Amino acid sequence: MKAILSTIGNRRRNSVITLLGLTYKAGTDTLRRSLALELAIKLSKLGVRIHVYDPLVKLVPSISNLNLFQNPYEAVSGATVILILTAWPEFASLDLRRIVLLAKKPYVIDLPHVLDAKKAEDAGIKMIEV
């Protein structure tokens, strides 16, 4: 949380944070024990706009400032920070150059380490280590 807040600084209400992966693990659609959902709730309380995408999640609990998208590229559009939270295999093959074009600032926190860090940096993405 600290790395996210230091990246967006005082622009919380003008920031979009994208969460890629909501389920507690890849291959399931359950949100039970989802740390990503807990993070979304905390960010929402701070006034941050949250975009989320998960391949299997079609409905999310009603959380203010949270919008669920049908594909990862729509979800990253306008994002200040992108957090990859679940190790879905499809996240490893995202079009990184497209993400750079769509995101407001290409800062990425990749918790499950699904991205090739060198390819991400070559595409213009700033990787944040936590």
* CATH homologous superfamily designation: NAD(P)-binding Rossmann-like Domain
Query: How do the strands of the widest beta sheet line up side by side?
Result: 3-2-1-4-5-6
Order of helices and strands: HEHEEHEHEHE
CATH class: Alpha Beta
Q: What's a concise summary of this model?
A:
With 130 residues, this protein is an alpha/beta fold. The protein is 28% helix and 18% strand.
Explain what you see.
By secondary structure, the chain is α/β, with parallel strands linked by helices. The chain has one domain (about 1-125): NAD(P)-binding Rossmann-like Domain (Rossmann fold). The protein has 5 helices and 6 strands. A 6-stranded parallel β-sheet has the order 3-2-1-4-5-6, sandwiched between helices. About 35% of the residues are buried. The mean pLDDT is about 90.
Show the helix and strand layout:
Elements: H1 2-8, E1 16-20, H2 35-45, E2 49-53, E3 66-68, H3 72-76, E4 81-84, H4 96-102, E5 107-110, H5 117-123, E6 126-127
Parallel strand pairs: 1-2, 1-4, 2-3, 4-5, 5-6
